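Dear support,

I submitted the protein below through the web form. The confirmation email said the job was done, but the results page showed an empty box. After a refresh the structure appeared. I'm attaching both so you can tell me whether what I see now is the final result or a partial one.
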Amino acid sequence: MALCLMKRLQMAGNKPIALIGGGTAMIGDPSGRSDMRQMMTQETIQHNVDCFKKQMSRFIDFSEGKAMLVNNADWLLDLNYVDVLRDIGPHFSVNRMLTAECYKQRMEKGLSFLEFNYMIMQSFDFYTLFQKYGCNMQFGGDDQWSNMLGGTELIRRKLGKDAYAMTINLLLNSEGKKMGKTQSGAVWLDPNKTSPFEFFQYWRNVADSDVLKCIRMLTFLPLEEIEAMDSWEGAQLNEAKEILAFELTKLVHGEEEAAKAREASHALFSGAGSLENMPTVELSSADFAEGNMDIMAVLVKAGLADTRSDARRAVQQGGVTVAGEKVTDIATNYDSNAFTGDGLIVKRGKKKFAKVIVK
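What the results page shows now:
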């Protein structure tokens, strides 16, 4: 959502400043969390920062004068604690901070002093960006409202000037939880974590009630084209989902990968197109103990089940097929020859599948 908003602002002639939280990641934002985030090492944070730069460049033109990419580690990590207390501390009321939604929901389970500082750090970010780069408006998800207001207030108190904050809608899944976050059901921009095909399928499978909302918020199709989809029903909604999946995959992974993902999806679900671009798991003959492998091991090796127990449940519940044939017996065995040549498609449920090949 943030990347799409920055892209829209840039298209409208504005200069976005993409702020990477290399410094605030050392603390962790309590907003929208029922528990404390895991602490990350500086090496992990730097790796994430490097990946973000690459991913953002798909959306934002960072060429000379068009946009900026800054990392708050550049000013936060060198701060002197006593100086911050004296210079910034007087401008924050603890009573007022505790009324913020991001803190209220954590008070019962316990809010650490570590996380309590997050609002001050984010506010200091805005204060710094305002002074260094003339940044006068901060955008963020609506769970960041309290943190962003802290920044506008700090700028007013310290500099006597006005700055602004604007929230954007969070993209929620059917359970009312944020899409694409580090909880279950996450979808990643990194192709090593979510392949272009899996990314395509994620959006191809959104609920009927969500597809037009996602098209409006996440694609850059002409508004009149989107408005025309409002009356679409039934099979037309499937067409809308494919448009959403293709446009988003093209944006994140490029048009070539989007076309491959669409073709693989057609091959899998309609029998048309090539299976060449489907997620593929390569096994060796050494993976087959005594020349055989049971269905539970196949599911685990293919990444379609976390454990043999998980695989057993999937089979017993009737959700597993191999080469289009339902497998209901956990004792079903395969020899390595079954997966040679073009391999076999192994499916778990409607959305998880892989082509398994023995090389």
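Response: this is the final, complete result; the empty box was a page-load delay. Residues 235-253 form the longest helix (19 residues).
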